[in-house]
Specification:
With 260 residues, the chain is of the alpha/beta class. The protein contains nine helices and ten strands. The protein has a single domain, classed as TIM Barrel, CATH 3.20.20.70.
Length: 260
Amino acid sequence: MSRLTSLPPVMVAPNGARRTKADHPALPMTIPETVACAGACATAGAGAIHAHLRDAQGRHWLDAGAYRELIAEMERTVPAMPVQITTEAAGRYDPADQRALLRQVTPEGVSIALAEMLADGDRAAARRSYHALAEAGVAVQHILYDAGQVDWLARELASGTLPDTPLQLLFVLGRYTEGQRSTPAMLAPFLVALDALTKRHEAGTDWAVCAFGPTETACLAAARRAGGKARVGFENNLFMADGRRARDNAERVAEIAALG
């Protein structure tokens, strides 16, 4: 059984698809760097890693073999920390590429943006992918960018595109744009939509938040107070709550883990 059937209170997202060492020298780009970062973040209080890969040119990379290598290294070096892989398109991949990745590697967890997986309109293929993941015991976290997408997810559940299983959601407060600063107020529409969803979906819903910019800590604190969980790390923000540039991902994790 996947150790990610329930989201941990804190998950670290140490690199993402866009930033490089030009943004911060401690941002991990290689598999060894990612594993070392994961170990430090586990000590700081992270219960899982949301892992992105980079190719030899430093570009976002959806590669099954490399993901299998990362998972094996994590099992050898940081065995207590489960790995959630990503299917993020990041302008490089389409839904067919994303589904192909998921046929070739079986992680404990994966994050999938609903809007990306359904971007080509092929609901039959999406249904096969989502249901195969459920049958394999892979914990799927659905990435949602606004409250309307929560309602959209409910419709896909009702139509059978998504299996009727416990849900894991990630509410993204803002967008991956230069200078984005999320605010705690951005969470409110998601919570209204979540309340409507949970009244219809009896299998249960587990949710977390990620946020951008120096207000990340305030946003994640608001999520924790509302009963949610947190995804934190250099994918979204490089700064501590006091405005100081974080030393590394572990320092960001420690600040969020201290929220309780």
